[in-house]
Amino acid sequence: MSDERPARGLTALLTTAMAFSMMQLFLLGALGPRLVERLGVSETLLGLTTTVGFGTAAVLSPLGGRIVDRVGPRRALVALLAVSALALSLIGAAPGPGLLLAAVALGGVPQALANPATNKAILAAVPPARRGAVTGTKQSGVQLGAFAAGLPLASAAGVLGWRGAVWVAAAAAALAAVWAWHRVPPHMAPAPTTPGGPATTDRRPVIWLAAFSVFLGAGIASVNTYLALYGAGRLGMGPAVAGALVAVLGVAGIAGRVGWSRAAVPGRAPWLPGGLAAGAVAAAVLLALAERATPLVWAGAAAVGVFAVAGNAVSMVLVLQRSAPGRAGQDSALVAAGFFAGFAVGPPLFGTLAARGRYDQGWALVAAEFAVAGAVALTWALRDRRTRERVA
Length: 392
Hints:
By secondary structure, the chain is mainly α. The protein is built from 14 helices and no strands. Residues 10-386 form the Major facilitator superfamily (MFS) profile domain.
C-alpha cells in the first residue's frame, strides 16, 4: 500500500466514498422540480433540506474527526457508505416532508466522516509526491455524485419514478460498503510527511481555511440546491434538461478539482483559494445574466465547478500539507465543518429570495459570498507569506 504509485483500487474507493457522502443532497437538488410537484415540497422547504443535512454534518464533524483518528479509515469508510445507503433508502420511502428531513439529517453522518476518513487513508497509504493528485481525484468524487444525480439518476426518474431512482442509489451505496470492507486494510500506519510542506502543530492555517470554507460552502450550496429549479422555473427548461445543469456542474467540478489539486504544490497552494474564489464570483454573474441570455447558464454552471468547487479540494490539499499525521482527521473535520456550516446557511437565504422570484438577488448574494471567501483566503495567504519570511 505504500508503493510509489498508490493502488488504483484504493483511489477509486475513496472517490466513491466522497460521491456517496453527499449523494442525497445532490439528488434532492436534481429532483427538485419533481419533489415540488409530487411530494408537496416548497422552494423554501427544499432549501431547508440542505440546512438540515449540512447543519447536522457541521455539528458532527469535530466528533467525526476524533472518531476517525481513533478507529482508523477502514471502519469509518464502511460506516460512511452503510449510513449513506440507509439515508437514501429512507428518502426513497418518505411519504412527506417530515421523514424526508429526518433522512437528510441522518445523511449528515457520512458527510462528517468523509473528509477525515479519506484524508487519513491518503496520509497512510499514498507517497507524499502523489498526495495532491490523489486528493484532487478523491475530492472530485463529490462532483461525480453531482453528475450521477443530475444525469443518469435524474433520467432514470423519468422511467422508475423519483423514488425508484433514489433506491437505485441506495443499493449502489450498500455495495460500496461491502467493497470498502474487503478493500481497505484493517490497520494503516501514517506515511512520512511531504518534504516541501512540513506538517506543523500550528492550527492557524486550519482556522483560516475553515473560515474560507464557510463562505465558499454557502455559495456552492445555493447553486447546487437551486440551479435545476432555476432552469425549470425561470429559463423554461424541462425537468431532465434542468437536471443536466447539475451534471454539467459535476463534470466541470471533477476537472477543476483534479487539475487545481495537482497545481497546489506547497509554494503555490496558499494563493490558489483566493484566485479560485474570484473565478467563482464571475460564475455567479453568468448565472444571473442567464435570464437575459439563456445559454449563459451552462457556462455559469461549468464555471462554478471549475472554480468554486475546486476551492474545497485545494483547501484539503493544504490541510494535508500543514497537518501533523496524528491530527489529520481532526484538522480535516474542522475545515469540513466550516464548509458544511456554509452549506447549512446559504440555501435558506437563497430560498427566501427564490420563493419571491428574486433569482437576480439570489445570484448577487452568491457572488458576495464567494467574494468574502476570496478576501479571507487572500488575507491568510499574505499573512502566511510574512510568517514564513520571518522564520526564514
